[in-house]
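Working notes for the structural subgroup meeting. M.R. asked for a predicted model of this chain before we commit to crystallization trials. I am recording the input and output together here so anyone reviewing the notebook later can reproduce the run.

Input as submitted:
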Amino acid sequence: MLDPLPPPPSWLVDWAKPYSEALYLPSLPYHIHEVLGAFVLYQTTQSILSPLLSNLLFPNVYSKLNRRTRINWDVHVVSLVQSLLINTSALWVMFKDQERKDMDNSAVERVYGYTGASGLIQALATGYFVWDFVVSARYLKIFGPGILAHAVTALAVFALGFRPFCNYYGPVFILYELSTPFLNVHWFCDKLNMTGGKLQWYNGMLLLSVFFSCRLIWGTYQSLRVYQDVWHTMHLSLQSGPVLRELRESPHSSIFVPRDGELCLGKTSCISAQSEVMKFTGTQTQAIPFWLAMVYLTCNLVLNTLNFYWFGKMIETVRKRFDGKAQPESPRSRQRKQSMVEVAASELDYDTLSGPKTPYTEKEDAFANLRALQDGEAARTTAVQGENAGVKRR
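Returned structure, recorded in token form:
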């Protein structure tokens, strides 16, 4: 399937080519406009759209947030927009890209193959992680080094797709983000004083279910497929030389015959889409470099390990709910007990998006607590004065 968006202008391609050749990312110039466009979209959302719409829709909440929380709010808005956009696009490509579907027949094509539509997903993800890297570096005191490391790792993985390398798996691993919208909704419920409501409860149920299904089950299975495909391609190349030898001996090598055996019947779009699959390979294509396989697979392993760690923290939080002793309640003042789903979602939100508190955030929280104590003391003083005045009048 060809890239559904218009191609970049020739001057932009010419500008990007020297850098792409130096980094050995030959497909990047043909998607550079989408990378830059995605970055501009997310930066504009954070700097302009989120403050404007948030002040308009939630004037009594957004305007009263402190600096750290307001930055977090805007970042969550970007995360919500990005996850909805990238998930919809990835699912559309997976269902509509016939050339990508036909790559199921060849591990070599899944590793070296390319389609314009999959390149679009790669570009949107790269643009987001460029923005994520800039924001994480700029607000390092707020988000911490862990979030910055995650941005660097994810950016490296998706940028390597422009070799092209494992272009087929770009939309696959994007589906990790299916749980992100529910995580953002949970966070906004807390900030909008909707904690414990029906919306947060049902959203939390969906969050746990989607996280387990997409990140643990689906993600682990697809990671194993990547390891198998990379190993197969490296093993094949070491024995047979250039990887295109297998393609030339394959009945799927003709660009005019789709992999289901039916002719394109002269359709220009079909012929063009078929010719793109191995567009960036040639007789000079050699084995996958060892460092590339190690970087890609190690980053993938780290991300999967984090998913299991986060889910383990969620299970641990649920167990604490059962192991903890019941707190005595007075009939006059009862505090609402958070549900297991709410606590688990809060634990996940803290680990994945907020990160550990830094001295900066601890100081800010201390000031916030001090202000709250001062406000409470002032309110109590006013109440006492009012009672004394009432006594004197009586």
